[in-house]
Amino acid sequence: MSETSKALVGSATDDERTQRRPKKRRQASHGPAHEESWAPYLFISPFFILFAIFGVFTLLYTFWVSLHDWSLLGGMNAFVGLDNYTRLLDDPRFFKATVNTFSMLLLSTVPQMIMALILAEILNDRLLRGSHLFRSGLLVPNITSVVAIAIVFQSLFARQNGLINAVIQLLGFEPLNWHAGRLSSHLAIASMVNWQFTGFNTLIFLAALQAIPLSYYEAAQIDGASRIQRFSRISVPLLRPAILFAVVLSVIGQLQLFAQPMLFGAGAGSTSGGNDNQYLTILLYLYGQAFQQPFRFGYSAAIAWMLVLMSAAAAALVFGINALLDRRENRAERRYSKARARSQEVAR
Amino acid sequence: MRSTKITATLAALAMVLAACGGGSDDDTNGEAAGGDAAAETDEGEASGEAITLNLWTFGNFGYDDLIEEYEDDNPNITIETLIQEFDGHHDGLVTSLAAGSGGPDIAAAEVAFIGAFTNEADSFLNLLDYGAEEVKDDYLDWKWDQATTLDGSATIGLPTDVGGMAICYRSDLFEEAGLPTDRDEVSALWANSWEDYIAVGQQYKEATGRAFIDNEGLLWDAVVNQSSETYYDSDGELIYADSEQVRYAWDIVVSALEADIDAKTPAWSAEWNAGMNAGDFAVLTCPAWMRGYIEDQAPDTTGNWDVATVPEGGGNWGGSHLVIPAMTEHPQEAYDFMTWLLAPEQQLRVFEGTGNFPSTPELYDTPQMREFSSEFLNDAPLGEIYSDNALDVVAQNIGPNYNLINQEFGEALNRISDGLESPEEAWETALDNIARELSF
Fold first, then answer.
1. In chain B, how many domains are there?
2. B81 SS3 class
3. Which of B53, B98, B338, B364 would disulfide-bridge A72, Cβ 3.0–4.6 Å?
4. In a 10 Å sphere around its CB, with 0-12 CB exposed, 13-18 middle and 19+ buried, how is residue B7 labelled?
5. What is the DSSP letter of A232?
6. B374: which DSSP letter?
7. B32, part of any domain
């Protein structure tokens, strides 16, 4: 950061001395009187120090590891440059894991957001009785342990004695081997995620909904807007920042999907994500490569870095879509205000 | 005014830094798991030299009473134990080995890991340097060899228990199907070959309409582990692709799948546990330690289970070693404690407490073991069955990537079971996958 911006930040927080700013600026370049300008940095430094140790350092160290042929048991063997990365691009299992991860991401994030929006709109209704009960109920899945959820869902989706297969049979269809099919296993795992996180997102949306002035809805109602129109034309557009937040959070979380697929495949070889890697995720593959035979620490570090890049790309994509929507909205607004100005002129 | 502000700021920073510093100090202590660090400080105090040894195990090794006794006899030694479940224990052990610090002084290593550990013998104490040669004859040869490098220059672990191999069967269900129920007659049904075992399965299925075996994976483990060579030969060369015995095990399991006698309940799943109770399958591959598992999962089936011998003789599944990571600061003390803990007399006491089957053959003739039976398993002479079986086992070089290869074959067979691939396709895919995984 430059000297001027430092001084700006320093003095901006120090309102007591705002008037003396010019004088202070002069002092800053010589003499001991410029201490206050770094004081704010001191106060925010704990976060950055911790972030440097546990964030930046580990990231860079992981990158260093990824450049080596490094066995977790045997230790570092040789510097191999980007070999681990070129190998990764050729690795059919990594490709499969990536496709699986994104497939489960879509299958969980999309329905989750839609359901959460609808639930939030319903719960926002002032006429709804017992809304507090429902609101706290929404958080119950979220505070349940992932392991407990996964074990319950594992038996729900069990092939022989599973509840879901029992219902399918009752309806006269053949029971499904949920673990064997790629899509079926993704649906099963996505359903765990949806069950756990829909409530959390609903609460985010509900909080944002309550910040929308009632007058908008009343005005729309007077103009004859239906309930659905009020939802799609007022709630959803005004919730966009909250939706953006929830989607980014969900995308980053889903790229690191681990416990659900691991426990879904509980039994022998749970890190393989199914007998044909049907539900192998990137993180599951990373874990299996490093902590189980063949204990490839360097390779697994390369997977970790690919995951970092993918997370960044996915987040950028979401923000990009948001920016596009923003621009479209601005254009619409300009058109609207121009039209209004014109009509006012005409009226006058 | 200004100076107090600066002081306050500095003080705040100092506190933050102190907190960070303190935190990391704590971490290093924590990593040493209380033991090494504590021992280090204790070392300063002269007389007797108080020493703490960390012992990491998983599941139920049944060492509590023995540890107390050892501590009473050796007042300067304190044993700290950390008992976890299987995966957590081995993950933690591997991680501490990789870090080169913070590990235990003595750790259990299950047979699935001992091959990989022996391949990295430098990470462990070579027990031969401490005179382990003297106790070699106490243990089963094949079990001893599992923790010894191929050139015989290093032995990294002493054997704890062995799994052995037998077949547990539901005599009540056998009776329903019109099959013999007496354990000798049942053993005779399939003593000669696995084909006979599958034939009995078909007979059972025809009579009852229910599955005979639980899943193909346990059958694979039973058959493939009977060979003297599985995935590596005795020189450490990879032979999984051409090994006749691997192919034999494959063909047996494929014919069981084609006979459609399996319940398709994956091992260790909730379905599997439920199936034990409900009688979804009539037989189980049954190492000595499996009795405890069945008893836990299906307590209502007491007396319905019985034990027969496994087709085609010996076999082993499971069992562990104790190893001493090279990072230990008290190698001699750890070695002394370990040799005492795993001596035949102590193994007998563990056996009486937990049923973990000893790896010391001299016990197999003792009356305590000969007469050992379990009410849950219909008073079958377990001691006799498992000790005869353990003596039949042939030494097998496990190899560094046994687990990886075994898992690929297991998944390939599971793909056949799920109808995803034909047996030939599955075999080819398995070989391709293994080759790719090992090609680093």
1. 2
2. strand
3. B98
4. exposed
5. I
6. B
7. no
Is B416 in the same domain as B290?
yes
Structure tokens at A219: 């005005």
Any B CB within 8 A of A151 CB: yes
Q: Give tens-digit pLDDT for B63-100.
A: 999 999 999 999 999 999 999 988 889 989 999 998 88
Q: What own/partner pairs with CB < 8 Å and gap ≥ 24 does B97-100 have?
A: B97/A72, B97/A73, B97/B123, B97/B325, B97/B327, B98/A72, B98/A73, B98/A75, B98/A297, B99/B31, B100/B327
In angstroms, the CA A261 to CA A282 distance is 11
3-state secondary structure of A161: coil
Q: Residue B416 sits in which domain range?
A: 167-316+382-437
Predicted confidence band of residue B259 (pLDDT cuts 50, 70, 90): very high
pLDDT, tens digit (0-9, with 9 covering 90-100), for B269-324 = 888 888 999 999 999 999 988 888 898 889 899 889 999 999 988 788 888 999 99
The minimum CA-CA distance between B245 and chain A, rounded to whole Å, is 22
The 3-state DSSP class for residue B74 equals: coil
- The answer to whether the CB atoms of B420 and A293 lie below 8 A apart is no
Eight-class DSSP state of B182: S
Task: Kindly state the helix (H) or strand (E) to which residue A33 belongs, with its residue range.
Answer: none
B8, part of any domain: no
Residue B27 maps to a domain: no
**A86-347 maps to which CATH number?**
1.10.3720.10
Name the token pair of A17. 């001395």
Token pair 């790229």: residue: A255
B195 and B324 part of one domain: no
B327/B322 Cα distance (integer angstroms):
15
If asked whether residues B84 and B72 sit together in one domain, one would say yes
Cβ distance A73 to B414 less than 8 Å, yes or no, reads: no
Q: What is the mean pLDDT of residues B215-237?
A: 88
Q: Residue count of chain A, please give it.
A: 348
Residue A39: name the closest of B10, B17, B4 by CA. Answer: B10
Q: What are the tokens at B170?
A: 């539901």
Helix or strand or coil: residue B61? coil
Q: Round to whole Å and give the CA distance between A86 and B303.
A: 59
Confidence grade of residue B3 (pLDDT, cut at 50, 70, 90):
very low
CA distance A289 to chain B (A): 10
| Inter-residue contact B309 to B191 (CB < 8 Å) | yes
Alpha-carbon gap, residue A96 to B134, rounded angstroms: 52
Beta bridge partners of B322: B108, B158
Q: Token pair 């370990």 is at which residue?
A: B338
User: What is the spatial distance between Cα A328 and Cα B42, in angstroms, rounded to a whole number?
Assistant: 72
Q: Could you report the predicted ipTM of this complex, rounded to two decimals?
A: 0.80
Say whether residue A293 is in contact with chain B using an 8 A CB cutoff. yes
Kindly determine whether residue B269 and residue A266, on different chains, have CB atoms separated by under 8 Å.
Answer: yes
**Crossing angle between the packed helical segments A57-66 and A297-347, to the nearest 10 degrees:** 130
Residue type, B13: L
User: Any bridge partners for residue B107, and if so which?
Assistant: B56, B323
Spell out the alpha helix ranges (H) of chain A: 3-13, 21-28, 35-51, 57-66, 83-90, 92-123, 131-143, 146-156, 163-170, 182-210, 214-222, 227-230, 236-238, 240-255, 259-264, 282-291, 297-347
The alpha-carbon radius of gyration of chain A (Å, integer) is: 27
Which residues of chain A fall short of a pLDDT of 50?
A: 1-29, 31, 268
Interface of B with A in 322-351 (CB under 8 A): none
Mean pLDDT of B220-242: 88
* CATH number of the structural domain spanning residue B141: 3.40.190.10
Q: Give the gap in angstroms from C-alpha A197 to the nearest C-alpha of chain B.
A: 25
Question: Which residue is listed with tokens 């306050």?
Answer: B8
Q: Does B403 touch chain A (CB under 8 A)?
A: yes
B262 & B278 share domain: yes
Alpha helices in B140-193 (DSSP H): 141-146, 171-176, 183-190
Task: Report DSSP state, residue A17.
Answer: G
Res B353: pLDDT: 83
- Quick check: is B5 in a domain? no
